[in-house]
Design goal:
Serine Threonine Protein Phosphatase 5, Tetratricopeptide repeat, mainly alpha, 283 residues, single chain, 15 helices, 72% helix, 0% strand
């Protein structure tokens, strides 16, 4: 994750979890010694001791050792309060290590086991960031981008009062723009091959599903071109009219206007067009 508000919020969320644990188990913190750090696999150690060892390792930057202590805790005390805490802490550590798939998995497990927990919003946000960090180049399959959108959207819808909502909304804008960009890429591919019905379907999806992205201007212009190429004059004129009404200074509108003029036409609204139904009348 890029340095900034998102990472600060993750640390903030983790620090809140750690603070509660240390307050509850302060006596255990003071009693932990080097002997406990090298305990045998079969030894049973108090859950608060294991948890605070994990916190100490994390504070020292030893993420792997911290996760070992959490694994010991989960194995020895699977139904304890500290097991719940260790799961969300392990989710954070996985993300911190760049183990994004593992972070998403442990975050989802936390939500499945403790859907009403006060740290649920935190878990959901880390899940979203774990997908977001793995978003591929626009030329590749965008299923991971869709997962990032879904996870961040869940933060906004399920936890509207959480501190993660503002950043989740920003990430949603990025994911939607990339999903729309992929549709444009495929649409242009079909258009270049003169498969205009296929290209229209892609551009229409951009306009209908991603209307607030930067790709809408081009999508409307490409619709004008594709309709014009098919001889669907009324739809081409209407697409250009909608483009001109909503983006009058766009270079895409200039291109669309000149294209229509080659056929002795000009932008004109059609009452029966799906674009008119979507954007409303332009006149």
């Amino acid at each position: 994750m890029q340095a900034g508000n998102g990472l600060k919020m993750m640390f903030s969320g983790f620090q809140k979890i750690a603070l509660v644990a240390c307050v509850v188990a302060v006596s255990a913190c003071s009693k932990t010694d080097s002997k406990n750090a090298d305990f045998a696999v079969d030894d049973i150690i108090a859950p608060d001791t294991l948890y605070n060892q994990a916190l100490a390792n994390l504070d020292a930057g030893d993420l792997s050792e911290s996760q070992k202590r959490l694994a010991d805790l989960d194995r020895q005390h699977p139904y304890s309060e500290y097991s719940r805490r260790s799961l969300i802490l392990n989710t954070f550590i996985n993300y911190r290590k760049g183990a994004y798939a593992e972070a998403a998995n442990s975050g989802n497990r936390f939500l499945q086991l403790y859907p009403g927990d006060k740290e649920a919003a935190y878990a959901q946000y880390i899940i979203g960031m774990s997908y977001f960090k793995r978003m591929p180049h626009i030329t590749r399959d965008q299923s991971m981008t869709q997962k990032a959108f879904n996870a961040m959207n869940a933060v906004v819808e399920k936890y509207p009062e959480s501190e993660y909502v503002e950043d989740a909304r920003k990430k949603i804008l990025v994911t939607r723009d990339q999903l729309a960009g992929k549709e444009m890429l495929v649409g242009r591919y079909y258009q270049e091959r003169r498969e205009f019905l296929a290209s229209i379907n892609r551009y229409r999806k951009v306009v209908e599903k991603y209307p607030n992205t930067r790709h809408v201007e081009e999508a409307l212009a490409r619709l004008t071109e594709s309709y014009f190429s098919l001889g669907l004059v009324e739809e081409a004129q209407n697409a250009a009219a909608v483009l001109g009404h909503n983006f009058p200074d766009s270079k895409w509108y200039d291109d669309s206007y000149r294209l229509l003029q080659t056929g002795g036409l000009e932008p004109r609204e059609s009452e029966n067009s799906w674009l008119t139904a979507l954007f409303g009348r332009t006149g």
